[in-house]
Hints:
By secondary structure, this protein is of the alpha/beta class. The chain is 35% helix and 23% strand. The protein is built from ten helices and ten strands. It is globular and about 55 Å long. The protein starts with 31 loop residues before the first strand and ends with a helix. 40% of the residues are buried.
Amino acid sequence: MDAIVQDVDFQDETPHVEHSAPTSYRALMSPTAIELCGLTKALGGRTVLDGVNLTVLKGETLCIIGGSGAGKSVTLKHIVGLLKPDAGHILVDGINVTHARNGELEQARRKLGFLFQGAALLNSMSVFENVALPLREHERLPEAEIRRRVQEKLDLVSLGDAAHKMPSEISGGMKKRAGLARAIVRSPEIILYDEPTAGLDPVIGSTINDLILDMQKKLGVTSILVTHDMSSAFRVSNRIAMLLKGNIIKLGTPAEFRACDDPLVKQFIYGESEGPLTREKP
């Protein structure tokens, strides 16, 4: 199946849709934050990514959607340099992280914050120490400055009173917020979110969506989310990319996805049990 990839004219007015992401696309007419160029990766003998090309602009929020095993999380791991592609390369603010040496890779990673799917807090450390960890590992700062920065970020995600608590003492939603505080404690320009609302009830999931929007508004960050949650994707994104069989089959605004008549796209975004995606499964 040929890939259906649409260019977005950011100067056009976007039709009204039910989501709260910024719609001033003139502000997104900016340099590239991340570029995937012919990204190809096979895992366990199966091609997960098959020549993926994707450009993410500075200041936008882009959601990557797709079924389980579509390569969403694998894409994030390539961006942060945890995986190396079999072919192609990734540019982070112009730095080729695929072939970067240690100094260049650290320079690129300095621009990135990563919210892991399960928050990935260390159970032996308090919330405060979990958030402080990147500063202690990568920065040379006096203790007073570390405490100031950590408290600032905890306040930003409404966890200022939970700094002393252990991960076992806080809820799933609070763990996600603590993970987000850790992801932004070094003031990154780009935040990567791996299934930020997974495992949360709708109310807490909505709170996380509000935080994602807040990060873009207050910090001006570029955001990439991978998610199965279409309500989240429609609410927070400026653009959405759908991965299927290692390729991006559609790229567009939430309004364009809602209006799309491609049966593959329609079945996924509306969660229909019958359709071509179901028939293609063994």
